[in-house]
Amino acid sequence: MRYLILPFIIVILLLASACRSDFETVASSGQLTFSKDTIYLDTVFTNIGSSTYRLKVYNTSKKDINIPTVKLGKGLDSKYRMTVDGMQGNEGKLFSNVEILAKDSLYIFIETTASSTDANPTDFLYTDNIEFDAGANLQTIPLVTLIQDAVFLYPKRFADGTTETLPLADSQEISGFYLDENDPINGNELHFTNKKPYVIYGYAAVPNNKTGIFDAGSRVFFHTNSGLIVGKNASLQINGSASNSTALENEVVFEGDRLEPEYAAVPGQWGAIWLTDGSTNHSINHLTVKNATIGLLIQNNDGTTVEIKNSQFYNSSSYGILAQTAIIAAENIVINAAGTSALSCSYGGNYTFNHSTFNNNWNSSSQLTVAISNYISGAIPEAKDLTKATFTNCIIYGNNTNQLQLAQKSTAAFNYQFSNCLIKYTENSTTAEYQFKTDATHYNNIILNQNPKFFNTSQNKLNIDENSAAFAKGSSAYLIPLDILGNTRTTPPDLGAYQSMAFPK
Questions:
Q1: In angstroms, what CA-CA distances link 402 with 207, 290, 333?
Q2: Is 254:287 a contact under the CB 8 Å cutoff?
Q3: Helix or strand or coil: residue 437?
Q4: Whole-number Å distance between alpha carbons of 58 and 104
Q5: To 5 degrees, how large is the angle CA 334–CA 338–CA 340?
Q6: Where are the beta strands (DSSP E) in 74-113?
Q7: Torsion from C-alpha of 336, 340, 341, 347, nearest 10 degrees
Q8: What is the pLDDT of residue 426?
Q9: Angstrom distance (rounded) from CA 95 to CA 130
Q10: What's the pLDDT score for residue 14?
């Protein structure tokens, strides 16, 4: 019986299919609806392709329709490209007889590659329209893209297809190039100005015995697997200054080259600022570093002090600052969110941090905020002297039980002191409270396990108000007169990098 019924069912289905009118379309009447009324393609650099953006087109009628044309307003001269339901069309510019079934929709994907010379010279916007049909039935969706002219720095490509590399220790190499103070195209590549943003591919190296200078307001965007290396006897000078708005117009900013909003807080988009062994006389002021693997890596410099002031390190996939046998004098520092530690001072060294805010809400049970040690397992020698690690008027906080780790080998000195600091350390709380309150050699006036009530850690806003446990708990003996934003501190000062103010409503 089953075998008799099966052919009958097939015949019925074939007859039903023959009666369908899916492909009997009527002309579009200009009643399409859209998921967006304007497509804003986020900022792109000149001649660098954008991400792909999506527009959904709806046929809300009860009839299958045919759109005679879907095209770009500037035609074949347009710098935009489209794909309509998987079709490429005429160079991605013109599509004919596009069908949409009743109560159905289709997707259009849009991208662009344009130069700053294509954009409007007054606002640097490049625009066009997607045009559906023509005449009385014409419907348009504007396309808008901000084009930034930029200085592009990258390794040379040789005739054999290989690219320029930089030598590292142990005969290793890394994709990169030396910055040239007499480059025939860019001029002095060692002097970064605020006239245009810079986009770096590979590691840009400050050559031995040279100085890399970054003016206030300069912007540097790093591609994947890129960064900045400072060589032997070479120096880094970051000369930012306080800004008057959230645009950070006077800050020096290092970040990844993906400018879409969804990449604004994605860690690990580029490598690191790397102050190599033997580099010297570094000065960093008003620097913001975002979304690196290691925000700042300092390895065994030549014995000179790395001065870091009024600087921020956000969303590093490994470390905000990683120092190894370094000498650091820092004030008004903010580090937030890192996959391993916000701050790691390892393999000994000499460190002073005053009026600084360290926080780590990374979603990991092993992440730390501040880690201090005098050794590296397997190194030769395995331990080096920690001659000093002093933290004053600081906040060390995060979402894990313990946000401070001290690890030492007895074969080397291990000297540290925390004064007037708020510290989160809740494991073995009885022992911890005894230690923090009675060990005057290492701890003075410690606020233990109280919430600083930052404004919004997920948005890197670690400012506080008068309701914070850090409010007016600092020592005037360590007072830095201005906070990271240039605001005058009151006395007694607040802990951390920010002078307390009422939160914005």
A1: 41, 25, 21
A2: yes
A3: helix
A4: 6
A5: 130
A6: 80-84, 94-100, 104-112
A7: -150
A8: 81
A9: 11
A10: 47
The two three-digit tokens of residue 169, written as one number: 């220790």
Sheet holding 53-59, edge to edge: 33-34, 53-59, 104-112, 80-84
Tell me, what's the pLDDT at 160?
85
How far apart are alpha carbons 450 and 463 in whole angstroms?
A: 16
Helix (H) or strand (E) segment spanning residue 351: strand 341-354
Q: Read out DSSP for 217-260?
A: T-EEEE-TT-EEEE-TT-EEEEE----SSTT-TTSEEEEES--S
| Structure token pair of residue 447 | 């606020």
Closest by Cα among 196, 311, 192, 342 to 248: 311
Interatomic CA distance for residues 342 and 317, integer angstroms: 10
pLDDT mean values, one per 10 residues, the chain (505 residues) = 49 46 71 94 91 95 94 96 89 92 95 93 92 94 95 91 87 92 95 96 97 98 97 96 91 95 94 96 98 96 93 98 98 98 97 98 89 95 97 96 94 97 82 79 95 97 97 98 97 98 89
47 forms bridges with which residues in the sheet?
Answer: none
What is the C-alpha separation between 292 and 267, in angstroms, rounded? 6
